[in-house]
Specification:
alpha/beta; six-stranded mixed beta sheet; single chain; about 40% helix; about 300 residues
């Protein structure tokens, strides 16, 4: 088995739990259709750099070679919090470029306050600039305005070629363990790597948590940059976003609370709940053949 990029010197001192556990659970919403359910507990990799955040950040932190790390996110970004925590744990300066310049004069929410407590310097930009942040001229202007021109830049969500190659280890850990491996998707980087690491006969299924139908092209582009072309079998089901990012609703809340009670598992609402809800709906539709096993990647925990 290939070594994990996240086992690089310095990062190994954080003692990640790898491979993460695979936990079989009995759930009649799957069992009545002859489908087995397993939970890939990436939420247990590290208490602060959990799930796909560890897998995506670790290769980028290695590539930064001790330089200040700058990255992007919204006001409730899990990725910003994980990057700030990594900076504190490793002694690396971090800068977070936050979407929405109107937030600069408001009290920080709990998520951004945690970033600041972990040593991250925040720089707020207007939403139009944020939309164009990947364009070279706009990015250069943002870096100048943030006094961060010499930083190592990690894209929003941590999804770049380094991260995608790091996430291939997730697929490698699950070879021969499930027929379908499913996870909730924001930017698609984890799915792009997961699919590449799976073995023959396995497929990856992504449940986007944002509206828009744009994720497929992004995943193909990420695989092109990371591997030079398509890798693995993967698909998306875009029906379970519940209105978009950070939106939930009573039906999803009730499902998540019930899942927590059944399986003694804290269910993060913005990503994991949508994934599990979608998988239960797909099982009821007969999307998974009888006798198959579905592994759900638990990428995070509820934010305190």
């Amino acid at each position: 088995m290939p070594s994990h990029p996240q086992e690089a010197p310095g990062l190994a001192a954080l003692r990640p739990r790898l491979p993460s556990p695979l936990q079989e659970v009995a759930d009649d919403r799957f069992g009545r259709h002859g489908v087995g359910l397993a939970l890939k507990r990436d939420d247990l990799i590290h208490p602060e750099l959990i799930g796909n955040k560890w897998r995506k950040l670790a290769p980028n932190l290695r590539a930064a070679h001790g330089r200040t790390v700058l990255t992007f996110g919204g006001a409730y970004s899990n990725h910003l919090r994980a990057t700030a925590a990594a900076g504190r744990l490793l002694g690396l300066p971090t800068v977070g470029v936050v979407r929405g310049d109107e937030l600069a004069d408001r009290p920080l929410n709990a998520s951004l306050a945690r970033c600041v407590a972990d040593g991250m310097r925040l720089h707020f930009v207007d939403r139009s600039t944020y939309r164009h942040k990947a364009e070279p001229d706009t990015l250069a202007a943002v870096l100048r305005a943030a006094d961060a021109e010499e930083t190592y830049v990690v894209p929003e969500g941590g999804s770049n070629a380094e991260a995608v190659r790091g996430c291939a280890a997730l697929g490698t850990e699950l070879r021969g363990r499930a027929d379908v491996v499913a996870l909730a998707c924001g930017t698609g980087g984890t799915l792009a790597g997961l699919a590449a690491g799976l073995g023959p006969g396995q497929r990856a299924l992504g449940v986007p948590v944002l509206r828009g139908g744009f994720l497929g092209s992004g995943i193909r582009a990420l695989q092109e940059r990371a591997f030079g072309g398509p890798r693995g079998a993967w698909s998306l089901d875009e029906r379970f976003h519940f209105g978009g990012y950070a939106r939930t609703g009573p039906e999803l809340e009730a499902f998540a609370a019930d899942f927590e009670q059944r399986h003694d598992l804290p269910v993060e609402r913005l990503y994991v709940a949508k994934l599990l809800y979608g998988l239960a709906a797909l099982a009821a539709e007969g999307a998974f053949p009888r006798g198959s096993t579905v592994a759900a990647v638990i990428t995070g925990r509820p934010f305190p």
